Automatic annotation (TrEMBL):
E.C. numbers: 1.14.16.1
Enzyme class: oxidoreductase
Name of the featured protein: Phenylalanine-4-hydroxylase
Family that this chain belongs to: Belongs to the biopterin-dependent aromatic amino acid hydroxylase family.
A GO molecular-function descriptor: phenylalanine 4-monooxygenase activity
Catalytic activity annotation: (6R)-L-erythro-5,6,7,8-tetrahydrobiopterin + L-phenylalanine + O2 = (4aS,6R)-4a-hydroxy-L-erythro-5,6,7,8-tetrahydrobiopterin + L-tyrosine
Entry-linked PANTHER family: AROMATIC AMINO ACID HYDROXYLASE, PHENYLALANINE-4-HYDROXYLASE
The keyword Iron appears for this protein: yes
Pfam families: Biopterin_H
Entries under InterPro entries matching the protein: ArAA_hydroxylase, ArAA_hydroxylase_Fe/CU_BS, ArAA_hydroxylase_sf, Aro-AA_hydroxylase_C_sf, Aromatic-AA_hydroxylase_C, Phe-4-hydroxylase_mono
Gene assigned in the entry: phhA
Length: 298
């Protein structure tokens, strides 16, 4: 398997989890031996809870990924073990990080088929809500689909596109971030068996796994690239709109063209609110908006 270039050590940094070396790449060793019995129990609880609910809700590609990794063997998985499977299937590699990375560092990892995973796991009193991504979100939410060849290629293309958007400027970056949000994090997929979840933010949340599919309040709207890139989103509540793809191939193909002219076009337009339904939308479900927060979205 290909190895990560030796990370350049930048400095030591005080974090919630102690004094740790931080590298330019943000990569650390997964400190597997330091997980407590409570940490492992939190993983097992969250894992069992999601696995009970997800058949018939998560897309088959996601469920297949979970099974192939053996994520439910009990206790927090070792990234090195998962990397064996990933490396020979799609050539991706997990790297452990402390948490969110600077945009350009994150993009560089994805562009090189490395997926950064926060190594630490939430506390037992945080099972249902966390304001920053932890191991359960990053690993359970994102990694199973990295075994799907088309999705794996999409993630790499996104990383490359990210470097480009970063060079173009903050507006372009915002448009691209919206695409990530409404696909990788909160995407739904319409299958022959019905509507399914593929977004990591949904699949790692018990509440939103139910809400995104069953609730009357949110809109479910057919994926349209420019529409998505021009739509604000919420970071503090369940989504007000979910965008629905028909296949990962559709998503990959729609995002293949050069975005440069799209970024230029979108600069001239105002973004849609998260809850908006447009006349041009292909509407799977028009939300009742019940309980929607009315303060501004991102
Ligand atoms: N095609 C996009 C561009 O030219 C890159 C990209 C691919 C972005 C896939 C997101 C997802 O910028
Ligand atoms: Fe995420």
């Amino acid at each position: 398997m290909e190895t990560t270039a030796v990370p350049r050590k930048v400095e030591h940094q005080q974090t919630d989890r102690g004094y740790v070396p931080v590298y330019a790449t943000g990569v650390v060793e997964q400190p597997w031996a330091s997980y407590t019995r409570t940490d492992h129990a939190v993983w097992d609880t969250l894992f069992e809870r999601q696995c009970e609910m997800l058949p018939g809700r998560a897309c088959q590609e996601f469920l297949d990924g979970v099974a192939k990794f053996g994520l439910g063997d009990g206790g927090i998985p070792k990234f090195a073990d998962l990397n064996q499977v990933l490396g020979r299937t799609t050539g991706w590699e997990l790297v452990a990080v402390e948490g969110l990375l600077p945009d350009e560092v994150f993009f560089d990892h994805l562009a090189n088929r490395r997926f950064p995973v926060s190594w630490w796991i939430r506390k037992p009193e945080q099972l249902d809500y966390l304001s920053e991504p932890d191991l359960f979100h990053d690993l359970f939410g994102h990694v199973p689909l990295l075994l799907n060849p088309v999705f794996a290629d999409y993630m790499q293309a996104y990383g490359r596109g990210g470097m480009k958007a970063f060079a173009i400027g903050p507006e372009a970056l915002m448009n691209l971030t919206r695409l990530y949000w409404y696909t990788v994090e909160f995407g739904l997929i319409a299958t022959g068996e019905g509507m399914r979840i593929y977004g990591a933010g949904i699949v790692s949340s018990k509440g939103e796994s139910i809400y995104s599919l069953d609730a009357d309040a949110p809109n479910r709207i057919g994926f349209d690239l420019e529409r998505v890139m021009n739509t604000r989103y919420r970071i503090d509540t369940y989504q007000q709109t979910y965008f629905v793809i028909e296949s990962f191939e559709q998503l990959f193909e729609a995002t293949t063209p050069d975005f440069t002219p799209i970024y230029a076009r979108l600069r001239e337009r105002t973004a849609h609110a998260a809850a908006d339904v447009l006349a041009t939308d292909r509407v799977y479900h028009r939300g009742s908006r019940e309980g929607f927060a009315t303060n501004a979205d991102t």
